[in-house]
Design goal:
Layout (H helix, E strand, L loop, with lengths): L1 H20 L2 E6 L15 H11 L4 E6 L2 H9 L5 E5 L8 E9 L1 E6 L17 E4 L2 H4 L2 H9 L3 E4 L2 H9 L5 E5 H13 L5 H4 L3 E4 L5 E7 L2 H16 L2 H10 L5 E3 L2 E2 L2 E2 L5
Parallel strand pairs: 1-2, 1-3, 6-7, 6-8, 9-13
Antiparallel strand pairs: 3-10, 4-10, 5-8, 5-9, 11-12
Helix pairs in contact: 2-9, 2-10, 6-7
């Protein structure tokens, strides 16, 4: 009887300690970068990976949607426990996770413009709308191009990039290919772009290598818990199920009469 009570006590103690260690974490996320982050429904591929990985160790997550620059400041000031989409050494005094996801950023143009874009330097004489902080994240050549190109601008809301390109207000949109497809779909489905505008053939010039992103945490133990959970959900199939769910949002067919047209660029 005494042994039985002792065993029960140990189980209760273990559960109690686990509950103490599990935390509700404040994580900063920039505005919608669908399908990775969908602010309107507090969902998205990256948010589900974040929550699922941390849940392995019992943590819950409260998402704070902020401008990208403010997430960096809030983490440094200790107002957040973590942020997503950082690169190694972007911030000092934080703890970086393993690589979570890679974006394939492209220089996207309309095929009818007949632009020859093979390197970053080919963007110098073109009007460009890029995502926020692209001039920092996409390498030295792009940083220099952006600094010297008076027609260069950045947008926090990436659906605006898509609209500006497809309405021919800018020559090139610099953004991740999947984000472009998602927002092109949404722009048509919400009436922001016409059938004719959406069906303009586009080229994704792959002048950038894939960009690998990590998450950054204020404390090493939370980073370690996240890395453990990230490996676990990959092993047990949870990650694959999440990825398949969001891949369905990137279909090039919008309805029976409308299809997104991605042209093949020679050599790519």
């Amino acid at each position: 009887m005494a042994k039985c009570l002792s065993a029960i006590s140990l189980i209760v103690l273990f559960c109690f300690v686990n509950n103490i260690q599990a935390k509700e974490l404040e994580v900063g996320v920039s505005f919608s970068i669908a399908p990775y982050v969908i602010q309107e429904t507090n969902s998205g591929l990256e948010l589900e990976l974040l929550k699922s990985a941390l849940a392995v160790k019992g943590h819950s997550v409260n998402i704070q949607h902020l401008p990208l620059a403010r997430t960096f400041h809030a983490l440094k000031e200790g107002k957040l426990d973590g942020i997503i989409n950082t690169k190694q050494n972007m911030l000092e005094g934080v703890f970086y996770s393993d690589v979570v996801i890679s974006f394939q950023n492209c220089a996207i143009s309309l095929k009818d413009k007949h632009f020859n874009i093979e390197t970053v330097s080919d963007l110098q004489d073109k009007s460009i709308v890029a995502f926020q902080r692209a001039s920092i994240l996409l390498g030295k050549d792009f940083t220099n191009m952006a600094k010297n190109n008076r027609q260069y601008s950045e947008q926090a809301k990436q659906i605006i990039q898509v609209k500006m390109l497809m309405k021919q207000r800018m020559d090139v949109a610099v953004m991740d290919k999947n984000i472009f497809i998602y927002y092109l779909r949404q722009s048509y489905l919400t009436g922001k772009l016409t059938k004719e505008e959406v069906e303009q053939e586009v080229i994704c010039h792959k002048v950038f290598p894939p960009t690998a992103y990590r998450f950054a945490f204020l404390h090493a133990d939370i980073r370690d818990d996240f890395n453990f959970g990230l490996a676990q959900i990959k092993q047990d199939g949870t990650r694959l199920a999440i990825e398949n769910k969001y891949q369905q949002m990137l279909s090039l067919t919008l309805d029976d009469n409308v299809t997104i047209r991605l042209a093949n660029y020679p050599g790519q």
